[in-house]
Specification:
Number of strands: 0
Distance between the termini: 12 Å
Radius of gyration: 16 Å
Number of helices: 7
Mean pLDDT: 86
Structural class: mainly alpha
Helix content: 55-70%
Order of helices and strands: HHHHHHH
Oligomer: single chain
Length: about 140
């Protein structure tokens, strides 16, 4: 869902907070944080200060509120998919009698990692996908 013909967005008038503007501008210039990111992404990500890398790499609200945060951002398709996926992970942990803390950590990290690229794709690229890994894979 890459609209590579549309470049150089000005996110000042989009009603976004400064943090979201920073994330969107970084994603627009360097691409999304895929499993195998581009060389430009890796290079520019390493140049950022620590807290800027934290802002781009994860989302604190999504870490704590998961699919509810996706709903608040208007990404209901991804919220439904994320909820189903998290329930499946929980069932696997239950079936194999794995520790409950592992479930919470996996769920929270998955939500935190996927929120920023998902919201970028939702707002900028007008993504209507149910794929929660769209910006990561």
């Amino acid at each position: 869902m890459d609209n590579s013909t549309e470049k150089n967005f000005n996110f000042d008038n989009w009603g976004l907070s400064k943090v979201w503007q920073f994330r969107f501008e970084f994603f627009e210039e360097n691409g999304l944080p895929k499993l195998k990111p581009t060389a430009q992404y890796k290079e520019n990500f390493k140049k950022l200060p620590f807290w800027s890398r934290v802002k781009i790499g994860g989302n604190l609200w999504s870490f704590f509120f998961g699919p509810l945060y996706f709903l608040c951002l208007g990404m209901w398709r991804k919220a439904i998919s994320l909820l189903i996926f998290l329930v499946l992970i929980d069932m696997i942990f239950f079936i194999f009698n794995l520790p409950d803390r592992g479930i919470m950590v996996i769920n929270a990290l998955l939500c935190a990692q996927s929120a920023n690229p998902a919201y970028y794709l939702h707002r900028v690229k007008k993504s209507k996908s149910f794929n929660i890994f769209e910006g990561l894979i």
